[in-house]
Amino acid sequence: MKLLVSAIEHSANIHLKALLPHLGEEVELRGIFDRELGEPMEDLRSLAIMGIADALKKLPFFFRLADRMVDAAADADRVLLIDGSGFNLPLAKKIRKRHPDKEILYYILPQAWAWRRYRIPVLERTCDRLLSILPFEAKHYSPTAPIEYVGHPLLDEIDAFKETPPAERKRIAFLPGSRRSEIRRLMPLFHEVRRRLGEIDARIVIPPYFHPDEIDELYGDLSAFTRDPETHRCLLESDFAFVCSGTATLEAALIGTPLVLVYRAKALDAFLVRHLTDLRYAGLANLFSMDFRGRPMHPELIQEALSADAMLREYERFDTERYFDDVLALRRYLGHGSSARVAAILGGETAG
Known about the structure:
Elements: E1 2-6, H1 10-23, E2 28-32, H2 51-73, E3 78-82, H3 85-98, E4 103-107, H4 119-126, E5 129-132, E6 147-149, H5 154-157, E7 171-175, H6 180-197, E8 201-205, H7 212-219, E9 226-228, H8 231-237, E10 240-244, H9 247-255, E11 259-263, H10 267-276, H11 284-292, E12 300-302, H12 308-317, H13 320-334, H14 339-346
Parallel strand pairs: 1-2, 1-3, 3-4, 4-5, 5-6, 7-8, 7-10, 8-9, 10-11, 11-12
């Protein structure tokens, strides 16, 4: 089977890598993905964007790349789009227009349930299968939409989980995110909290792609921390975590590490999020928990609510026993990983 794949973001390639062992050797990958996974039509390193000015300069390149993908779809048996809605949703529309009978599958859907809901009918019209990783997502689509919950990829990608709640707090993880702006805003708080916690083993997760000189500029003096490039291992071995809003908060919750979500954005970005979305919580674990518990799992400190005092207050009063009960419920709620089901669908298995 010739499978045309668009995995244009780093996270999409993590999910694609987990999917490949389930597909079998008869599947031939084409399209956009990490070079370590095959022979892509474009090296993802050339797609990296730094800031709005860089994005505007590269727009013609992305338009040409989309046209190349549309051409390549003619010889593909199926098209698999993974996340990356800014590129993949327009691409789906172009492929559907040029090749109306081509089967298009979208895995890890745009969060149209949270904002820009007008994308939902576009997805329903454009894609043959909508492969959701959020159990509640289908209820936001029409009853006849070709959408199915396939499981959550983190349950494939995380290889070890806590089976009991931490009995004490000796090792604390600090995860300031992967974007430079996030790191610069959070590190002064992390330094202060680490100092005030005193005699602990403080671990900090630093993405492996930062240059040593850049680390010094972004993170400051890290002599009071132990560096760790492995998010899952660090969370598994830690008794508590302060985590920048993002996928890592759900990773911590699934692994079973008590956490406080922290985030501070530019004032304009925060204003837009508050006024353009219906989200009550930033963390996915909290959104899931509202669905199966009717309450959030862990604290969130965002914008003006975020301070070192607030972080330490939430740390001190955190109910670990109740949280771990929610952790077990979260694992049951998500059920299983998604890779095997997505592979079965790509192999021709029907919905159900």
